[in-house]
Design goal:
The complex is a heterotrimer of chains A (212), B (239) and C (211). By secondary structure, chain A is mostly helical. Chain A has seven helices and no strands. The longest helix of chain A has 29 residues. The N terminus and C terminus of chain A are likely disordered. Chain B is of the alpha/beta class and 239 residues long. Chain B has a domain of 164 residues: Rossmann fold (3-Layer(aba) Sandwich), CATH 3.40.50.300. In chain B, 34% of the residues lie in helices and 26% in strands. Chain B has a six-stranded mixed β-sheet, sandwiched between helices. In chain B, strands 2-1-4-5 form a four-stranded antiparallel β-sheet. In chain B, helix 4 crosses helix 5, helix 4 packs parallel to helix 6 and helix 6 packs parallel to helix 7. The model of chain B has no long low-confidence stretch (mean pLDDT 87). With 211 residues, chain C is an all-alpha fold. Chain C has two domains: 105 residues, no CATH class; 83 residues, no CATH class. Chain C has nine helices and no strands. In chain C, helix 2 runs antiparallel to helix 3, helix 3 runs parallel beside helix 6 and helix 8 runs antiparallel to helix 9. Chain C is extended and about 60 Å long. The chains are: A mainly alpha (212), B alpha/beta (239), C mainly alpha (211). The interface between A and C is large, with 71 and 74 residues.
Chain lengths: 212, 239, 211
């Protein structure tokens, strides 16, 4: 984090050294701003399970914000930092912080039937972050970002179903147990896109520039 | 303290612009018009309205913001080329100490500051305890930063910055969140410091005691000189 | 944040973290790998492991209520799994699968309930340290962990503030009004923290020659 000149890339990619325009996570080392964004988004993941869900009425069940934050990690932080934020959250949950849904904690979660979702969060955020790069350059930005988020949702749900199967559940039961979360996740993806686009306006210097 | 009294900050036509909020436009917005300054005085105040560009000017001084054009040099180091050397010599105190204090307790936060010096964990702990004692904060060492009063927080933030012995101290409205008594306490601490101090403030009584005043208005440096005349100019601008 | 740690003086509490982690690994291996040998053998091993884990739970003074709470959270899934396994492979295998899940979940609950968070974090840092030679940076990693822990209360506070504000404006059921301000203030907070770290010369990667 040494420059305040906004460069392109994902929404919150800001203040990066001007000599590294290409965002290649393995090569470019993260600066203080990157670490801070990763840490705070991981905290957002953790906090989202500690706050009561929002009762919107249409679904009959309160909406929890966890999968919304997974989508935001990808859309706002991009591939490398978004994946890192979700991974950091999961790592700290695994070593024993009660930050998984239902205040669960520890490696127990990996043995539980819903383990697939936890692992899926990492890959979901990664896929969304990867696709967001392209979506942001598209002419239909909102639609493309929503598409990216939906692909991520499919990845998370696939992992969830595989997790059920590994634990010995039948495929129809696994799918049935999974799809009840799908409508909520679609709504949350719309919300994630609205939030991502609003962040542009709230932080003009985080702005995305079109490639020349 | 490496070279008290011999600091020299040079801004050469340094300007800051940002790209417009609409990604489709190619326009840029000027935050700070080109400014050339040589800052050598021990106590320099920057005054101006909210959003006038004071913070941006201060952030140029330690490389938190890089000039879009022109250069900023601190004791010969360019903020663009050698930002870590610049940050070693320039300590920065923010308006809100809570954004500055990272660890849960003052003790741990000072240990964090000391990480830049290659010390062992035990040495860091020992040194942090000594620093807190120096600044009269020993009794708060293990308190949560959320339990401290605003004044205690700002003094802690100051101590974490001074822990690494910078040559220059830059403060961005450090007294804005403080009451009168704590403002006075903070200023007493600052007065006693050997470092060069560059501080922005809305408190004109404080500014009046400085050696030199810069008045910023709408991203332009509109006055540079003696405190009395600078304050008069600022009052004029405020209408 | 709900603390997972239950203070106590039991022998489980006093056991070193490394040993507890090793035992946990052993439980997982016994329960999940034993079916590869023979079904009858694995049923016996898994049942014995489960009994030992429950004894450990009781010895640690964690109480039956805590045990039940851990099981209750996954009860629906356990029933679905048990039904399918019973139908496919019979009651013995169904029992083995369920007992394996419950044993590993309980064992890791025992570990996290009897170890303070500080110790867990130190353990994590110790795990990362050997990775230094592969380019990992333990200092920056622990800084990020510390930043995350410090930010959780802030973000929870932001959720509460925003909920109150939305309620005051009659927007309690409006998803955007409930979530957007939280994310905006969270990003603002992250940026202020990032600036403060950079200003203190922390968190930025050090140039190789400085090492």
């Amino acid at each position: 984090m040494t420059s305040s000149r906004p460069t392109n890339e994902t929404l919150a990619t800001t203040k990066k050294p001007s000599d590294s325009v290409d965002f290649t996570p393995a090569r470019r080392r993260w600066g203080a701003m990157d670490l801070s964004l990763i840490a705070v988004f991981a905290a957002l993941m953790a906090a989202s399970i500690a706050v009561p869900g929002i009762n919107v009425g249409v679904l009959g069940v309160p909406i929890t914000l966890q999968t919304l934050v997974v989508a935001l990690c990808g859309l706002v932080l991009g591939f490398g930092r978004g994946t890192a934020a979700v991974s950091l959250y999961i790592l700290l949950g695994l070593i024993g912080l009660p930050i998984f849904s239902g205040f669960r904690a520890g490696p127990a979660v990996l043995a539980s039937p819903s383990a697939g979702y936890i692992v899926g969060f990492i890959f979901g955020a990664a896929v969304i972050g990867l696709l967001a790069r392209f979506a942001l350059r598209s002419r239909w930005r909102a639609g493309a970002l929503f598409g990216a988020a939906m692909v991520g949702t499919i990845v998370v749900h696939s992992f969830g179903i595989v997790g059920f199967l590994i634990k010995g559940m039948a495929l129809p039961a696994a799918i049935a147990a999974d799809v009840i979360y799908l409508p909520g996740d679609v709504i949350k993806n719309v919300l994630a896109v609205v939030i991502a686009l609003s962040l542009h306006r709230a932080f003009p210097d985080l702005l995305v520039r079109r490639r020349k | 303290m490496r070279n008290a009294g011999n600091n020299c900050i040079v801004l050469d036509r340094a300007a800051v612009t940002v790209e417009a909020a609409d990604p489709r436009s190619q326009e840029t917005k000027t935050i700070l018009a080109p400014v050339s300054l040589t800052l050598t005085e021990q106590r320099i105040a920057i005054i101006g309205a909210n959003g006038s560009g004071k913070s941006t000017l201060l952030r140029l001084l330690n490389g938190l913001v890089l000039p879009s054009s022109g250069t900023v040099q601190v004791n010969g180091n360019s903020t663009q080329r050698d930002v870590s050397a610049v940050r070693r010599s320039v300590g920065f105190v923010f308006t809100d100490p809570l954004s500055q204090l990272v660890m849960p307790t003052p003790q741990e936060d000072i240990e964090l500051s000391l990480r830049r010096q290659k010390l062992s964990k035990a040495e860091r702990r020992h040194k942090a305890t000594a620093i807190l004692a120096d600044y009269g904060l020993a009794h708060l060492a293990e308190s949560s930063i959320y339990e401290l009063s605003g004044g205690e927080r700002q003094l802690t933030a100051l101590a974490t910055v001074l822990a690494v012995a910078p040559d220059i101290l830059v403060l961005d409205e450090p007294s804005t969140l403080l009451d009168l008594r704590n403002t006075r306490l903070l200023m007493e601490r600052l007065d006693a410091l050997p470092q060069q101090i560059i501080m922005s403030t809305h408190n004109l009584d404080l500014a009046a005691r400085f050696d030199r005043i810069l008045v910023i208005d709408c991203g332009q440096l509109v006055f540079d000189g003696e405190p009395d005349r600078g304050i008069a100019r600022y009052r004029e601008l405020a209408g | 944040m709900v603390a997972g740690y239950v203070p106590g003086e039991s022998i489980v509490h006093r056991t070193r973290l490394g040993l507890k982690a090793l035992l946990l690994l052993l439980v997982a291996v016994l329960c999940l790998a034993s079916p590869a040998l023979s079904p009858e053998f694995s049923v016996g091993i898994t049942t014995a492991t489960l009994i030992l884990v429950v004894i450990g739970h009781v010895v640690a003074g964690l109480g039956w209520q805590r045990l039940w709470r851990a099981v209750r959270l996954m009860l629906i899934f356990l029933i679905l799994i048990a039904a399918y396994q019973w139908w496919q492979f019979g009651p013995l295998i169904a029992w083995q699968v369920i007992a394996a899940i419950v044993a590993t979940v309980l064992a890791s609950n025992v570990l996290t309930s009897t170890t303070p968070v500080d110790t867990l974090l130190d353990g994590l840092a110790a795990l990362v340290r050997p990775l230094r030679r592969f380019g990992a940076d333990p200092e920056r990693f622990s800084l990020t962990v510390a930043l995350m822990l410090r930010s959780i209360p802030y973000v929870i506070g932001a959720f509460a503030d925003v909920r109150d504000a939305a309620r005051a404006r009659g927007l309690e059921r409006n998803l955007v009004a409930r979530s957007l301000p939280v994310v905006i203030s969270t990003v603002a907070y992250a940026r202020a923290t990032g600036d403060a770290l950079a200003a203190r010369g922390l968190g930025d990667p050090e140039p190789p020659e400085a090492r």
